[in-house]
Amino acid sequence: MTPAFDATTDxxxxxxxxxxxxxxxxxxxxxxxxxxxxxESSARLGVAIGDSILDLRIVARAGxxxxxxxxxxxxxxxxxxxxxxxxGKPAWRAVRSRLSTLLASGNRELxxxxxxxxxxxxxxGARMALPIEVADYVDFYSSREHAxxxxxxxxxxxxxxxxxxxxxxxGYHGRASSVVISETPVVRPRGQLKAANAEAPxxxxxxxxxxxxxxxxxxxxxxxxxxxxxxxxxPDHIFGVVLLNDWxxxxxxxxxxxxxxxxxxxxxxxxxxxxxVTLDALEPFRVDGPRQDPPPxxxxxxxxxxxxDIGLAVELTPADTRGARTxxxxxxxxxxxxxxWNMAQQLAxxxxxxxxxxxxxxxxxxxxSGSEPGTYGSMIELSWRGANPLALADGTxxxxxxxxxxxxxxxxxxxxxxAHIGLGEVSGTILPANGA
Length: 436
Ligand code: MN
Known about the structure:
This protein is α+β, with helices and mostly antiparallel strands. Helix content is 16%, strand content 25%. The strands form seven sheets. Strands 6, 7, 8, 13, 14, 16, 17 and 22 form an eight-stranded mixed β-sheet that branches. A five-stranded antiparallel β-sheet has the order 4-3-2-1-5. The chain has a five-stranded mixed β-sheet with strand order 9-26-25-20-21, with no helix packed on it.
């Protein structure tokens, strides 16, 4: 299948705004985020283009976004995307299409309105904010390779995949209020830890702090409580995707998770990238996923390709003894296209009992791992629970994440004939446990 380009993803499209070669954010991307202008306290909505952010409040106030969206000034003058998300895909497309026109080479409307200068801020160094008020947060477990690895590590004497895994996109409810914007420091959590040979647990800072390489999708509103979203209609409810790091304390998680699933081992922090890339921008990179065996039940069966070819990388940057960060190294590379359960199936399953889907809901993929050792999306897999510590360029080794370490996740899409687009990055640095 060769995905089609529309007017906004046409690789021939150019912008009058300067876009450095290889930028994650050419005019074909136009991801949405929220930023805080110097001297201001609340966020504004923006769209990234090249090394700039277009201030949507200014553009909307000038009346330039009202074509197809009469309430643009209210929706885009907000501090989060939630009001726009609630309006649904026709509104999302109207804004994206209009922004593409305004930023395309030859367009003079921002100049004619006298706002061409004041509408842009520099993207590097800009203070970013959460682009959505997270309504509900769900985390899935949809990489077969990751689920198999974790099964081998945690339950070595049994079949790695539990019997339900091939039938259900397994997931759990996370904590929406713990979702933080990229670059927010993460305090090492304390919790109950129990060594395998110990009689009783202790309450102490986690000794097995981990990251999880994930992509999340953001939704608009679904139907009323009691009604489900069909798998075919599910993509219509998905606004876009965003990089997410599901920080995990493996020792807290390992002691608490049976029989009801993760709770405090996950809910201390979840880092979100600042830019949400729309599903429309990703359309040139939509591909078939792995064959599903057994065939999914009817409510999860969808004939059209629903996976996306998105290259992903994990970087670890340790702090040296002076706190400087000079040794960044890539510790994993993988691709989103290999996920067993796709986003349409995750959303359809999530709403299949009639539970509500709300504007600003966040659904994370689960750790994205490939089949080779260098493609694993978590430290517990890369070091095989500490059995094979990673050697770092600064001469140290890592079984898990240490205080002062910075983890950065990146994502980008490349296909012959299509414009390169990227998801930017999400990073977080670990601070010592409080009172430690
Ligand atoms: Mn996770």
